[in-house]
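Recap for those who missed Tuesday's class. We walked through two folding examples back to back. For each one, the amino acid string is listed first and its predicted structure tokens come directly after. Nothing is annotated here on purpose, so try labeling regions yourself before you check the end of the notes.
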Amino acid sequence: MQLTLLGTGCPKVDHKRFGPSNLVTTKKTKILIDCGSGITQRLVQAKVSTMNIDALVLTHLHSDHVVDFYQLIISSWHSYRVRPWKIYGPKGTKKFLTKIMEAWKEERNLRIKYEVRDSIDAFKLNITEFKEYGKIKIKDIILEYFKVDHLPVKYAYGFNFFNLKKKLTISGDTKPCENLIKYAQKTNVLLHEVFIEGEIQATNRMRTSKTLHNVKSYHTTSRMVGKVASLTRCKKLVLTHFVPTEFNEKKLKEVVKKDFGKYPIIGKDLLKINI
């Protein structure tokens, strides 16, 4: 099983760190997690065709995690995808994605009629919404989903991926919570988001102290992520979804090491990690 970090950024645009997205693969299976800004470009760079993705899994419905959904769908059709999309996500996913498809319906129908392609199956969505907890088999991977704490976002999830006795945990967006620590126990790789303290200062009415406090409150800070990783007893900690996207990497690694006991891996777009 292999993890490819497609986008390690946040809502703020950064050409080095695209929007949040990851890819989990085996020789048989390709699972896309989230579809942040620039996802289709990163897939091309990773030499993965949208034609061959077996499932799209959404952690939650914040814009930075889903903003390129329609780009993913339309580009898959142009990449000759001839099967419907299997999509898994939180409560509200069906309504949300249906609205996106509806917004582009007129333009899409014009393309379909004029371009005369053999299949329109790439536009068909087979959507399953998560319960509180569950497991899903996708070819040779078992996906375990569990709720995390990203309030006021009510439905946010973390994931475990199992294959050949290997375990990969993806935190999704969350502040430190018991569920993540519970389900990430002894994972081979923990991919975790991080809000880096001290790197953003309140400067004006668009970035007030209250703004920074609220953003930090539903993420995991650099001072806490090492503690979380230590409690999970994970073998490797990989950091992603950096807020902000530019920061002192050496300082971050030292801060996390104090609690984790070893250096984390600083995620970068297109980084591949064998599980």
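Example two. Treat it independently of the first, because the proteins are unrelated.
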Amino acid sequence: MKYVAGIDGSHAGWISVIRKIDKENYYKLVFAKKLSALFNNKLNLVLIDMPVGLDEEIGTGGRLVDKLARKKLIKRKSSIFNAPSRLTLKARNYQEANKTNKKHGLGISKQSWNLIPKIKELENLLQQGNRPLIYESHPEICFQEMNNNALSCSKKEKSGIEERRKILASNGFKLEFLDKYLQERNKNFKSDDFLDACAISWSALRVSKNININIPEKGIKDANGILMQMKI
């Protein structure tokens, strides 16, 4: 295993922060409109802030991984939304998706519906044999773990951006790298997208060293054999 990445979605596509396992001060940011464009034969492992593995029947609180992740997160629990039923991926509009999801457990939020195109992109990649290892993660839990405590501010606030910048800097990220992308205006992603990808890449390095946290501890697989487990 040589290269790992933390990937987060943005309004215009996907942002990836790539790390080198034997050179921890190596950072590379890559943006792509399509998720598949971020994958190459040098990348061994990916952590992504997107549901990996979907249930068909949805119980109260969503998938087990969603419920346990919310329990783990001290603040901003609403940042962990319920993943949709796999059957919802065929819906043509929100009304149809909501009806399908309700039929198989509970309704779908507008936030979840807006992520359906990205979930489909990921689903297509998960079905491919020649790909890196792909696991789910969540930036708010990554930051909480780095900080050894809950964060004070929302990532949508200026104070929250600075709080996350300091946490990343205290966990091995060079300020030169962080400030380069925080200070420039980018039409493809926002500052919080960049910081989230950095946080997830921190966890990706932990996974490569087998020192990460698993939620749940013992993962379960969906009907397609995909592991439903967050790695932090």
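Answers for example two:
The radius of gyration is 17 Å.
Strands lie at 3-10, 13-20, 23-32, 43-48, 133-136, 214-221, 227-231.
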